């Protein structure tokens, strides 16, 4: 698919394609053409031109999402291109904007917004090297610290210290970049480039470091907080976090696995849970909540009922919900507003089929994404599922990996899915009849790949043919066996792997020491 370019855009491409000429001629370019030239340079990966455009940026703001998004001159959205060459050129250009000795009254730039950049699986840039959120966090922190050191050691134009640019960014902090980010945030007041954290993700970080750095980010500005995987946050730490720090603008909260475990609850824990619910109720902007792999049996109402604003996204996958929890969800004021819902890991057909149908009917007018992985949905339940999904005419994404469905049932379901007009993405399971007879669900990792691959390919072709015959080439159907692509996990998998090996080694050493004592 080719996107039309205006004559202006074609001219801009011609101008920036000769980097040496473009860089020499920037001084004669009208200010309102800088955004056009920036997008053209980004498309052609002209790193040196990008650097010089940013270094001499003549406007009040630099919003990367808008600059790279669809424009009248070129509709193609480039905001998902996290090309390493282009990203590094932008950030070093920003540093050099501060250092550029042209008279300060010409420097108008006040806000740089890097939050509109989207990390996706397939990159189209020629260099094939991406700079993900973690690496952007690291580079910006490094450049801010180096800039400050340089300014303190060099005789600069006094006006340089009057420059103050807010750099809006989604930070991603782990053990491996913690020190750099922490140093940059500590000196934020003195640096002309002010890091303004809009979204914060932490992984593989001790609680002590997490608590320290979250306070440095200025939590009053945070819109999104993700605490994931190897941050061992439990309920008492969460209560401490919410009691000591206010998040007035927080819209989205993700908690790590095992934050809650009601099986171990005491009276004190019940009170703690009530406090956490009340504190979340004070977050009047909160509309997205993810707390998967916690044990929350019978406590959903206690957590969610204090919320003043209805949730638009809820992930309670593998949370051991009971009938009371599902009944609360179906009847709560959240139900009519849920745009994204993940109930994976619950035996829906067995435990609460009618309550689930009620929940679906309440959110059907707005639901865009539904995830029902490992929910024990079998062939006999497909008609019930179709009935529940029929009113969900705005559904764009449906994921149901890990359910014991036959090829025949999948074909029946796909024939129905073709009728959902907004549907774009379907993640379906390997058919049960592709696995050896007697396989038990949920399938463990050891057996996950032990299926008849040729038969699966044939079935996948037939399912795609159903979409094709219904003129639904716009629907992408796939079977990601080990879960959907996660850009953040992908970018830091070396660090996470090293962490797991270290944990395993420590566990082994403890076991050996205990065994030797016994001997």
Description:
The chain has 519 residues and is an alpha/beta fold. The protein has a domain at 7-131. Helix content is 42%, strand content 10%. A 13-stranded parallel sheet has the order 1-2-3-4-5-6-7-8-9-10-11-12-13. The longest helix has 26 residues, at 493-518. This is Leucine-rich repeat-containing protein 14B.
Quickly list its features.
519 residues; 13-stranded parallel β-sheet; 13 strands; LRR_dom_sf
Spatial extent as radius of gyration: 26 Å
Structural class: alpha/beta
Q: What strand order characterises the main sheet?
A: 1-2-3-4-5-6-7-8-9-10-11-12-13
Largest sheet: 13 strands, parallel
Instruction: Tell me the number of helical segments per DSSP (H or I, 4 or more residues long).
Output: 20
Shape: globular
The end-to-end span amounts to: 70 Å
Question: Into which percent range does the helicity of residues fall?
Answer: 40-55%
Q: Report mean pLDDT, rounded to a whole number.
A: 94
Using DSSP, what is the number of strands? 13
Low-confidence stretches: none
Strand content: 5-15%
